[in-house]
Write a structure and sequence with these properties.
2 copies of one chain form a homodimer. Chain A has 10 helices and 20 strands. Chain A is α+β, with helices and mostly antiparallel strands and about 350 residues long. Chain A has a 6-stranded mixed sheet with strand order 4-3-2-1-5-6, sandwiched between helices. In chain A, strand 16 and strand 17 form a beta hairpin. In chain A, helix 7 packs across helix 8 and helix 9 packs antiparallel against helix 10. The first copy, chain A, is elongated, with a radius of gyration of 22 Å. The interface between A and B is medium-sized, with 33 and 34 residues.
């Protein structure tokens, strides 16, 4: 990872604001900017790309090892220490993440009121480095391999919870550091609950089985959903699966540079509406994924930023019929100059397995 | 869990402030107050104990199922919806957790400036319900059982990472929902790094092996550390282990009602200082544990609140000799009328295993 190059890009964005110093407070932004992976730190950045990492004594050695080219300061009141490095500066702070109390304490050290940085770092994080794409690809490969193993069965007769734990274990066996988020494994009527928690319900023949899951590799998150039928599919299951698959394929095909998330959102919804399904599509269409499982850009009617090369997002339409069952199909996709690269290439056709 | 009783306690605390409504924004506080376990919600509370849960459409059914006796509202701008339920009220908000931007948006809906609630909910969370202690006990039992299995070996020749993953898997096999935090497994010189991340370093004869880990059960976290020697212990290893064990035993013995964390902190540091070790004790002595791995009360020289029945905390002194090795011994302990109940009763004497 070329953290120095990231700091230069961030410094350039900072220079375009009224501020000359940036205080970075969310750990995930600190990590992106410096490489630091511990649980407590803030960072400062100046318009020439110089960064300081401030952490507590537990992390002194780790910070120095992980953050070459970054000065490390150790103490307890991290924001106060940061402020006193340049109390007269015009600071930008991440008011969308910083707490009211921390902001008040920080301001007390300064001679000028800080400005809001907005999502300066988050916006830069949208475009992944080549190294980041490689880690996402690896996390997705592990996820797909684990799912294929689970699909070999047996499935009928096991509980949602057992299948979820088995899938998670296989990801770790395949090299994941852990799971990217709490696995959703939802059978039958539970598949209609978008974010169902795995329960002791047994999987039965005739159930839709929806699994939403992903591996975590070196801080990077995979995100994939597939829905299959246990045994032979009923007509209504085929119908909603076909509608979701058509919408999802359309959405993936539109993940190209210079397209806006809003255009894709509108097109996918229009496609679902031809079957009258949009009222049953109650979740978001997709989101960026990287150091966080949900990050910029988010899909929705008001997203105006255009997709660029090496933006990694999910595409995940669904139809949820309350009390009956639901289907979601989700891929993690990297936008490239040659079009969308699906990082989670597990089969999307309707499998009847068991 | 008797959530209605918790809401009455919180309402009583709210009534003692200048506010008549509380906006609860950290998910863990929402969960404690209502039982809701999803990933997006806020809650409101009035001085008669009435609560409203506000979440998005994904969680409508789950919220209604998990939160009996609580009105559920569904939408996107959760804070805005909350404000409009009582725009003229005097609100208390959690400024230690609420972001600057959310606060600004919330205030825009109100006719009166909100006040800071302080750590109203966190303070109530310090004293656990009987049901919460039972879940913590279960999480700790699983943790200890998994550690004992790991100690049976083999250990020498495996990597830190392999041992950490094996331990985590055993906890899930024993019924954990997952891990309470990233497992620390640190061998030899790495044991001197308080928060070392498991690496590909192989465990060797003569190494100190420090493992800090815990199981997660129904949202409740276990936290336990043990340090052993692989093979025969050297004199310096025996010396620091004995010093830590003496300090840790003293600390545990003092975990009684009406004692303050500051008194315990001072006593344990004085004990370590008799051997000249305090300069090598660079971490905190302990913290509350429950729905969060680190929660109130925190041990330190300025903590004045007295321990009460069913407060659950860790006790974890350590000595870290940079470049050589370190020892930490940590238990999760419940304060009871009969004295400290150690929830993680794995052996603390210096084991020479392999």
């Amino acid at each position: 990872m070329d953290f120095a190059a990231r700091r230069l890009r961030a410094a350039e964005a900072l220079a375009a604001t009224e501020a000359d110093r940036l205080l970075v407070t969310p750990l995930v932004n600190v990590r992106w900017l410096t490489g630091f992976t511990g649980s407590n730190a803030v960072a400062t950045l100046t318009t020439d790309g110089t960064a300081v990492l401030l952490t507590d004594g537990r992390y002194r050695d780790q910070a120095q090892a992980e953050c070459p080219g970054v000065e490390v300061m150790v103490g307890r009141d991290l924001e106060g220490m940061a402020a006193t490095t340049a109390a007269d500066a015009r600071w930008a702070v991440e008011t969308h993440e910083m707490t009211v109390d921390t902001h008040r304490q920080f301001v007390a050290y300064l001679t000028q009121e800080p400005i809001a940085s907005g999502r300066l770092i988050e916006t830069l994080r949208v475009v992944k480095d080549v190294d980041e794409v490689e880690l996402l690809r690896r996390a997705c490969e592990i996820s797909v391999a684990a799912l294929m193993a689970i699909w070999e069965g047996p499935l009928v007769g096991r509980t949602e919870r057992e299948v979820a734990r088995d899938l998670e274990r296989r990801m770790v066996d395949l090299g994941a550091d852990g799971v990217a988020f709490d696995t959703i494994c939802a059978a039958g009527e539970n598949s209609a609950i978008p974010h169902h928690q795995p329960s002791d319900r047994e999987l039965r023949r005739g159930d839709l089985l929806k699994i939403d899951f992903g591996a975590l590799v070196a801080g990077y998150h995979a995100d994939c959903t597939r829905t299959v039928v246990l045994g032979a599919a009923a007509d209504w299951q085929r119908e909603i699966h076909a509608a979701v698959l058509q919408a999802q394929s359309l959405g993936v095909s539109m993940l190209r540079t210079d397209v806006t998330p809003a255009e894709i959102d509108a097109a996918v919804r229009a496609d679902l509406e031809t079957g009258g399904w949009t009222e049953h599509f109650t979740t978001g269409l997709g989101h960026g994924v990287g150091l966080q499982i949900h990050e910029d850009p988010f899909f929705g009617p008001h997203q105006t930023g255009r997709l660029t090369d090496r933006t990694v997002v999910t595409m995940e339409p669904g139809i949820y019929l309350v009390g009956r069952g639901g289907v979601r199909i989700e891929d993690t996709v990297c936008v490239t100059p040659n079009g969308p690269e699906v990082l989670t290439p597990a089969p999307t056709n309707l499998l009847e397995i068991g």
